[in-house]
Amino acid sequence: MSFGGGAVAYLREYIVREQGWLDDEGFLSAMEISETVPGLIAVNMSVIVGDNLRGIPGAIVAIVGMLLPGSISVMTLAILYQSNHTNPDVKHFLGGIAASAVGLLGTVALQLGRKQFGKMPDALLVALTFFAVSIFKISLPLVLVTLGPLAIWLYRPSASPERHADEHLPFHRGPRHHLFHVHR
Amino acid sequence: MTQHPTRLLHLFLVFSLLSVLALGGGNSVLPEMRHMTVHQLGWLTDDQFRSIYSLGQVVPGPNMLMVLVIGYKLAGWLGMSVVGIAFFVPDFIIALSINRLWIRLGDWPWRLSIQRGLAPVAIGLMISGTYTIARLSVVDVPTLAIALVVFGILTWRHINPGILVLLGGAVYMLAMH
User: Fold this and answer.
1) Which residue in A has a C-alpha nearest to residue B21's C-alpha?
2) CA–CA separation, B91 vs B28, rounded Å?
3) What ipTM was assigned to the predicted interfaces of this complex?
4) Which domain holds residue B27?
């Protein structure tokens, strides 16, 4: 079962350690792309690993493999739910699951955001995005076309002198920024 | 069952839009998904949205497979297929294209600017996704306690979150029985 950020640690274990499909650098590079482009991170990851190993057919097989077992399970549950949705026990069971998911999502967001909360302008961008979406209810497309370019501009090539500092990390082609802590 | 071409087109448009907006993962579009499906289009109630979200939590693979259930509920198996294609194909094409472009971008300095700039925006969106589910599911003292206990356990101990999520469901069911 892959849940939230846990999926990534599992992916790394399997792709790098067990199968040897990618080395650490290849894995981190695939992670960078998966985090930066839209879409579910584990799904993007499967597409990229599949593409790197076997081209487009590989990417197709990988995404189908990633989605098929869960699709069958979720539809099975959906059909069971359809005939039991008035049962108060079912309703409360699902309610408890959603409440637990809040705890899980909160943990994942805090773990992933650790690096962002302590430094500027990242902390400001995190807060701006949250307030825009959740408090001021601005539509997501509008938030992304305004804050996205602003955020990229704040990190424009000439503007961040400190980024030379992490250029000498092990097996990095260049400075990079991890959303996920794959080394947990 | 009669098919509604307009409904299918609508489903396709909504979920392909959500697909390209999902910066930082599926949870990032939860607020927009709820806004569109519950408030704008009136397809679901908040209770239904929360229950479908919970179904996605207990299956292997991405939680966002919940979108298939929304498609199924609104337009049967065809609706499920339309939503599956709309939600996953655009991301597939984008991930594949950027993967091939990435190497060529090499040391292009803006590549790093995009990566670093978008990371905090993605985190903000994840927190918004968490907030949306919290508003829907933390409805009384027991649900608040469950959310906090799960948060506490996962912060200090590395255990399988799937088991914890199922336990949370069982505890609330028994508490309310």
Assistant:
1) A38
2) 14
3) 0.91
4) 5-136
